[in-house]
Amino acid sequence: MSAFLRCIRSDFYKFRHTYMLPVHILLPIGTAAAFLAYYAVSSWKPTAKISGYVEVIGISFPLIISLICSKAIEQERQAGSFQNMLCCIKSRALIYLSKLAVMILMGAFSVALAIGIFAVVFKTAPALMYEKVAILIIAGSIFLYNLHLFVSLQYGRGASIGLGIIESLVSALALTGLGDKVWYCIPCTWSARFADNLMYEWLNPEKAFGYGEIQKGLMVAIPTTAISLILSILWFRNWEGRKIYD
User: Which of 222, 199, 165 is CA-nearest to residue 52?
Assistant: First the structure.
């Protein structure tokens, strides 16, 4: 455990003099401020404003994850062709998991900040609902963090960002009828669909449809994410770096 914590501390230290930490603060603040400014002059119903905001966060998250993960791996490449990741400690698993944990922690902070700022103004929804939205968005994104770390390591920045763009587009389409009954099998839609179904449950508590959909999604997302983590660690244990693709 102490070795794992040292790896996490080391990764945070690497980001201290980059834009990685500031962007996780400024981006959610800017997003919340932009939506609040627009909603101040918009004629939308308060419930529609809340629903639209959390859906946009869910839709944009795959692209943001691709940008963040690709930047983190690009930093490792520029610092010495991944030697810090490949040679620092004996356990490759700790290196990979610490990098993944730092990405997820920073993402969780950003989501909590974006939703928290919005919740302070829009008190139409209960605080517990906002908390559940933030938790579900992060839970639904763990698979994507893992996927984009793998893609960034193996194929480079361009592949990760390109995939992120496609994922965000698919996530938006999945909020329409096209995503019904198939979104469980499309990881990039999990965050947006979880948030959307939670909002539906809040607006229609008598139907109990939203929670049922969330449960179905979690039944697929949890084992799929766990299996992906195991496979990624096994792959990284034998990974020897890559040539420059970008």
Answer: 199
